[in-house]
Amino acid sequence: MSVMPLSSLARTSRAASAGAAEAACLGLALKVTGLVECTGEVHVRGIVRGRINAARVVVSAGAFVEGDIVAREVRVAGRFDGRIFALSVIVDESAAVTGRIFHNQLSVERGARIDGRTPWRPPNFFESLDQLPETMP
Amino acid sequence: MTMFSRSDKPAEPTVPQPPRPQAAAQPLSSTSTSAPTSAPAPAPSPVRPQSSQTPGVSVISKALKITGQLESTEDIRIDGEVEGDVRGLSVTVGQGARVKGTVYGDAVELAGAIDGRIEAKKVVLTATAHMEGDVVHQDIRIESGAYIDGHLKPEHGKAAAKPATKPSENAKA
């Protein structure tokens, strides 16, 4: 259960953005169980149960993600249950988050639901994150 | 009892908010509504307009790797790497993509590599296809240049539906 360290994500994401700007899209009717790994950007519109490792993750309104998200940047507009590990997190007004948001910069819009904790961490916590802490959400 | 008489719906504020007329459309929260809801918001969302280009199709892009199951009631296009089973209405495995596992669908088009199995009504193996494993199909088209290492079984649908009823009948007899 090792995680791609964010420091390596930073390198690959820059390379990916230079080449293919196309974001991966997990559509409305799609249900994924397991690990989703991406060097670029992932848009989730359907259901994901498991873990998402990516440079940038967008959980769209109507989407549901259960599990862990490890990314540099996360934007949640849908439902999320689990843990987020990201330097920058934006929680939109239509979002409903249960669990923990480990962040360095957090922005929550008025109307968003957050049930859980939002621990702040210094940037080097995320850079050296190659093993997720085994805490329950 | 009802403290501040708050309804439990998240997206319908009881306080009138003039700059947010789209709040009424919020509970539907489909793909089409997600783009306009975020558009007037001042928050930085440079990726939203571009993401609404493909409403139905799920794209597993080149940079993406999925370990586990993929299930969809719509079309799936795979350009990246999937380790596990894929179920969709129409599954397209693009050139350079790799799938390790079984691909189920009504129509499967293969231009990349599959190490596993295909079970579909209509199968198309293009010239760049690399198929290692069996293909269960009703209708197949193989272009010149496709690589196949496995059996082709023209029994999709017939074989899948029958064994569920037949063994029990045999057991009774």
Notes on the structure:
The complex is a heterodimer of chains A (137) and B (173). Chain A has 137 residues and is mainly β. Chain A has one domain. Helix content of chain A is 14%, strand content 52%. The relative contact order of chain A is 0.16. About 8% of the residues of chain A have low confidence. With 173 residues, chain B is mostly beta strands. Chain B has a domain of 103 residues. The C terminus of chain B is likely disordered. The interface between A and B is large, with 45 and 41 residues. Strand 2 of chain A pairs antiparallel with strand 2 of chain B.
List keywords for this structure.
heterodimer, A: 137 residues, mainly beta, 9-stranded parallel β-sheet, 9 strands, 52% strand, B: 173 residues, 11-stranded parallel β-sheet, 11 strands, disordered C terminus
End-to-end span of chain A in angstroms?
Answer: 17 Å
Low-confidence parts of chain A, pLDDT < 50 over ≥5 residues?
10-20
The major beta sheet of chain A can be summarized as: 9 strands, parallel
Q: How would you sum up the global shape of chain A?
A: globular
What is the residue-mean pLDDT of chain A, rounded to a whole number? 83
Strand residues, percent of chain A:
over 45%
DSSP helix fraction of chain A: 10-25%
- Topology of chain A as a string of helices (H) and strands (E): HEEEEEEEEEH
Most extensive chain interface and residues per partner: A-B, 45 and 41 residues
**DSSP summary, beta strand count of chain B:** 11
Q: Determine the mean pLDDT of chain B.
A: 73
Distinct helical segment count of chain B: 4
Q: Structural class of the helix and strand makeup of chain B? A: mainly beta
Number of strands of chain A: 9
